[in-house]
Amino acid sequence: MIGASLGAAAYERAPEISGILAGAGPVEDTRPARLSAKTDAILTLSGIGIAFGGVKALSDVDLEVKGGEIRAVIGPNGAGKSSLINIISGLYHADRGRIAIDGQSFSRVPASRLARLGVARTFQNLALFGGLSVRDNIASGRVHTRRASFVEHIAGLPRARREDARIAEKVDRTIAFLHLDTVADRLVATLPYGLQKRVELARALVAEPKILLLDEPMAGMTATEKAEMAGFVRAARDRHGVTIILIEHDIGVVMGLSDRVAVLDYGRKIADGTPAEVRTDPAVIRAYIGTADGEGI
Ligand SMILES: Nc1ncnc2c1ncn2[C@@H]1O[C@H](COP(=O)(O)OP(=O)(O)OP(=O)(O)O)[C@@H](O)[C@H]1O
Questions:
Q1: Does the keyword section mention ATP-binding (predicted)?
Q2: 53 and 104 in one domain?
């Protein structure tokens, strides 16, 4: 497996991200374009490029994601994977290229409208409210659906009560789906790391996204936790039809879970295909272990 073959050298070529967000506020493209009826792509990236100072994080990257598929993006450290997810979710703004999400085309994805575009994401490092319960953290994933005003909520007016009941029902269903019932009222900070990652998945799923972006959902997990998480990700696709874009370092997990895998190296896409195709691609083998005749991938 690639995972077993990945030496530290391949993984330690690039500095870690600095966390500085690029670009100014979201600017929606004023010329929305509908997707061609000939394609079943729900997400298309065309010619995406972004640089930070002198570092080209992504150069001319194309990516097509079909509705209902589990699509992995892999590559050594610093290859540009997180930058790609951050561009799709509007946190970074590409210097070049276009992004089409479910029929709407953007040069800059409006982060503030992401949930309404049907996109949800999780983060590489947990981004939960540790002092709130699991239930409240998950409910925060539906904030964008609230229509009743603050005053209506304070006064307990019917619209606000109906809204609360609807959200509570969706939260309960998500808790059951991800087997979080026994910890639903615990403070998130008191949970083991693997369960916290699952709560983050729950918060993304409760929004009922069409597209779910998962940035290293299994990082730091035990083998058992990874297998459980992989099962939940697959179930989200199989039972709810969610399209999933996944960045993950554990290549064994990626190969077992994904329909198609795109491989980045130094910001360029070097391979794209089924797990079986990518696994034997000489460019991928070179990128990961520095030699075209590497074994065991
Ligand atoms: N906000 C930023 N500011 C400056 N440089 C950045 C920023 N984000 C990414 N980079 C740089 O862009 C390149 C690609 O980084 P990115 O995090 O996208 O790669 P990655 O494949 O996700 O890496 P990893 O697997 O280590 O998370 C790296 O050289 C990184 O240092």
A1: yes
A2: yes
234 and 111 fall within a common domain:
yes
φ, ψ at 138 (rounded to 5°): -65, -40
Q: What gap in Å lies between CA 65 and CA 225, rounded to an integer? A: 27
137 lines ligand 1 (CB under 6 A): no
ipTM: 0.97
- Is residue 154 domain-shared with residue 282, that is, in the same domain? no
Task: Check which CATH number belongs to the domain holding 57 and give it.
Answer: 3.40.50.300
Tell me the average confidence (pLDDT) per consecutive run of 10 residues in the chain, 297 residues long.
Answer: 33 24 30 46 96 94 97 94 95 96 92 90 80 92 69 66 81 95 94 91 94 93 92 94 94 93 96 94 84 44
Total domains present in the chain: 2
Are residue 103 and residue 217 in the same domain, yes or no?
A: yes
Q: Are strands 260-265 and 96-101 parallel, antiparallel or unpaired?
A: unpaired
Residue with tokens 């997810």: 85
Alpha carbon of 177 to ligand 1 centroid (Å): 33
Whether 91 is in the pocket of ligand 1, judged by its Cβ within 6 Å, is no
Q: Is the CB of 109 under 6 A from ligand 1?
A: no
Residue closest via CA to ligand 1's atom 5 equals: 52
Determine whether the shortest distance from the Cβ of 49 to ligand 1 is under 6 A.
no
Q: Which of 155, 187, 208 is the last residue of a domain?
A: 208
Best probe residue, ligand 1, of 11, 13, 17 (max atoms within 8 Å of C-beta) = 17
How much is the pTM? Answer: 0.80
25 CA distance to ligand 1 middle (Å): 20
CA separation for the pair 205, 280 (Å, rounded): 34
Q: How far apart (Å, rounded) are the C-alpha atoms in residues 99 and 83?
A: 14
